[in-house]
Amino acid sequence: MEGFFKQFGKIKHLRIARNRKTGKSKHYGFIEFENPEVAKVVADEIHNYLLFEHNLQIHLIPPERVHPKLWRGVNWRYNPLNWTKIARKQHNKERTVEEHQRMIKGILKRDEKRRNRIKAAGVEYECPDLVGLIQPAAKKIKFDEED
């Protein structure tokens, strides 16, 4: 965007709105030129111009309507989160006995609903028993801290 608009004049600020989670563009942004006359010319000439398969809707905003925090974080770069790593950490976390029992209770409840739907559909099916209903032994030995 900066490469396209700098042909009209020197750009003071450029801000493209992005999705915080994915970093993809929200397809709108703000540009401030150093010379206000350039901004007027760009708004008149480039309105409804096709750029990157999108029609540009350009409106001139008077300086008194610009929010004071608009240009905060202009040079911020999107740093993508590793969602796979986050999900892996959440999945592999150590659970207490209560958390494990609550998880098993939900699994059994969903399994019972599934069995009832199969039976209500008139299908005669022997569902296999669930494995892992018993809390596994702790993998790590935990020692009490004694001072």
TrEMBL record:
SUPFAM superfamilies: RNA-binding domain, RBD. InterPro entries: Nucleotide-bd_a/b_plait_sf, RBD_domain_sf, RRM_dom. Its main location: nucleus. Keywords: Nucleus, RNA-binding. GO terms for molecular function: RNA binding. It is found in: Nucleus, Nucleolus. GO terms for cellular component: nucleolus. Residues 1-63 form the RRM domain. PANTHER family: MKI67 FHA DOMAIN-INTERACTING NUCLEOLAR PHOSPHOPROTEIN. This is RRM domain-containing protein.
